[in-house]
Amino acid sequence: MKQIYNNYTPEDFEVWRILYDRQIQNLPKAASKAHLEGLDKVNFVSEEIPSFEQTNEILNDLTGWRLAVVPGIVPDYTFFELMSNRRFPATTWLRKMKELDYLEEPDMFHDVFAHVPLLSNQAFVNFLEELSKIGLGYVGNDYAIELLSRIYWFTVEFGLIKEEAGLRIYGAGILSSAGETKFCLSDEPPKFDFDVRTIANTSYRKDVFQDRYFVIQSYEQLYQSIPEIKSVLAEMVNKSQPEKVMA
Hints:
Elements: H1 10-24, H2 33-41, H3 52-62, E1 66-69, H4 76-84, E2 87-90, H5 108-114, H6 122-138, H7 142-157, E3 160-163, E4 166-169, H8 172-175, H9 178-184, E5 191-193, H10 196-200, E6 213-216, H11 219-224, H12 226-240
Parallel strand pairs: 1-2, 3-6, 5-6
Antiparallel strand pairs: 3-4
């Protein structure tokens, strides 16, 4: 699949502009430094829907990553296979005007505006690549994939990071939501230090703001957690298997 830029309608450009302008006002005091720097590096602007071809050239030069066009949510194997080969799955369609504040399936604004800037950060993409390799080893094991999805959810999608300027957002699920951007940094939801075992044991919902967030100290911490993620998943998966009865 590929992005067919000429297919975008005036409504698509208007939706992109509205979402971009609304969220860009929140980012200076909310988004992580790496996301803000990445946003400049990939040259996203309000007036233009990003071109995947141009974005891929930039990302490839920065970290060796590229975008891979997908129709929407893809099967586990496809998702992990793409990312283990430094290809981030992204849709090319944009939500409709009536869906500005919420839609059930991630669109291009979420996939591109919220995710792509951090693909310029080497430690972060190293984490994505290694996490995906773990996922490939568990495809077909629903319990293991659920545990791994919790790690992905509370980091890549809804993670917070402690920086010199204070608590900041790096999770794309938050950065594509004006409402949750403000909510997650307020005093209302509890925040916890990043802990692999705790996250693996924490379920989540997709249809509401999160009721808790986990905070990392750096993107290097994420990447360095890979061995622990492997160990915790293996332990929890093994414990979930019924013991064999000896004859």
